[in-house]
Amino acid sequence: MPNTSLSALLCEGENETFSMSETIFLTQLKPHQFGILQHVDAKDGEIERLMAMGLCEGRTVELVQAGDPLILKVYGTRIGISARLAAKLRVVACNPASCIVEVLEAGGQAASK
Amino acid sequence: MSESSAVLDAPNVSGPARSIPPTIALVGSPNTGKTSLFNALTGLRAKTANYHGTTVERKIGRTAIAGQTVDIIDLPGIYSLNAATEEERIASDVVLGKSGYTAPDAVVMIADASNLERSLFIISQLAEHNLKIIVALNMIDVAKSHGIHVDADQLSDELKCPVVPIIARSGFGIAPLRAEIAAALAETSSRPAEEAIPLAPSASACNACGLCPYQARYSWSDRVVKRAVKAPRVAKGQKTDKIDRVLTHPFIGLTLFFSVMLVVFYLIFSVASVPMDLIDGLFGRLGSWVAGRVPDGDFQSFLVNGVIGGVGGILVFLPQICILFFFLALLEDSGYLARAAFVVDRLMRRVGLPGTAFVPLLSAHACAIPAIMASRVIRDPRDRLVTILITPLMSCSARIPVYTMITALLFPQNPGKAALLFTGAYILGILAALTMAFVFKKTILRGESKALVIELPGYRIPGVRAVLLYTFDRAKVFVTQAGTNILLISIALWALATYPKTDTVPPNVAEITAQAEAVAAAGDTDEASALFAEAEHQQSRFELSYSFAGRLGKLIEPAVRPLGYDWQIGIGLITSFAAREVIVSTLAVVYGLGEDAGEEEPTGLYDRMRRARHADGSPVFTVAASVSLLVFYVLAMQCLPTQITTKRETNSWKWPLFQLAYMTVLAYSAAFIVYQTLRALGYA
Question: How much is the ipTM here?
């Protein structure tokens, strides 16, 4: 599957959940807005560091504080990250009340397939 | 290396009679309380060394569990076993028994109950190997205060390993944890491979496809959390968010940070001076006590000036090291230090360094040794090395006596100008450091500096016990690992300034002695003792110039002549190689005042220095030569303990030698330019 992201995979079965709205840069989120990570466009070493911190495609992040560096929250962990790096992360903005649960279930389904 | 490290590094070597105690490895992410748990299990009986051939610290502590001696290894805090950093590579090598390490008999995985997802990630990696795992579910008190309930039994079922709820800082749950460790050690066979945690099949399949290879692990951990954790839907950590709004504010946060650092810096400077003077005085008294009981001669000189002086010269750094690390541990434990690195990051990027480099560089103004030791907070090895290399350019407190001497020499009547020159020396050090950082990043340590990614842990009240243990550990590392080397070289330098000895009494000393005897015979005892002291000072001056150090001073005179120095200053450069402030007492000796004159009657020393003449009759300490000497001491290495610390922290003699070389070249060139320019302008 060339150039596929996990969300695209998930979306095949769940079109209405991810109404494939346009991805935006993480830096474009507003404070306390949530987003689902779609694509991490960083260099190898940087991707590793981000992933180990939980910044991985398909995960939900919250922008806690905008600026440079900015503060993100990934499942309760706060991460300070420079705007330069954050601008390499693409997200789909989502509704905070619903997206966490949906991602969990989607993840569960994908995993059990 | 210590005995225990031999056991670890060379797994199959054991004494014939002594069996190797079983080992337990502590694994966990940063900020999950791993160190607290280590302290709770081992207390003060921990040894710190580096992993062989690396700069990663290994802490190992011995404890008795169910009557059996057990070694606990505190692995570096990691986010995964992916070997993305040196620390992760070592942690995974040790846990999995690769690269010559013996695999531990059991692994205690410390998980943060208030944020279980993150810890589960490493557990999912550990579970793929044939290891006995015990999960220590830490900070259940913090989780509870957030309304989070973790079902330990359910979690144990999910993970198929024992789960023990603990509060590492208070000691709650440590006894059951010890019992689980004992049970794991008593078990003969390790867990069968087929009982490994059943990650979803798509998980392993996903490793091969182009997706994020961690996605499956995270999905798995999300599902485990869903089953074992009951958390309120209200987002936690709003208090932390509120505090962060102030402390990480681009302007207020930065102002607060500078204020905090100023206070810490001031405390290092002012509070440390009391115990430092105490240590100095104590060793001075010990020296004279020994001198009074050991007959005069080489052995007495060796004991007093070589050994006692050397040990005193090491211990005098302890107050600054302790105070700096006490406050750093306090700030780190409270969660503030990560914010400090966060707010100052953008500022530091302008000189190509990460925000984490700020604290070491500022503390270097008190002393480069703790500053270099503190540079461990810088995660990127290249950034850390650059910081270590430039740290000694910051004006440390040992430069103050030298700056004081030269500014007072130049501007005895004008404290304003003296203060200006003093400040100029500090600014020169900072500018030189930042310039060199820039140069190193463009040349030998080339590469884009890694963008900031830093975990901001929740705020909490720092644990006094953990902070004190950490301070104690840093002090111990310095004394045991730097101390011995420093002592040896202090003794070598003492020998250099003492041998070869001479019995010759130079004519001027004979003359003064004869004069003194005549005055004593005439009954003027005050005048006589003054003359005797003068004769003694002239004799030690003669002996110093006769010694190897004196000969070296003369040997290097042609080299230091273009900087405006004579051979007597050359001796000072050599004797102050290990400790720059020694130049003051050396100059006091070479100008015939006795070594304590620099402290006791500095104006006398300054007078002698002003009257000092070259062979052709021209003054030695002209404006040009004095400023050149000042510039040299701002930029030159001239501190052996720092070099030894660099060696320890970089795990190679290459970097301290490079540091010595570049700083000497820098100091020499700058002093040369300054001297020649000032001379051309007529300040000679």
Answer: 0.75
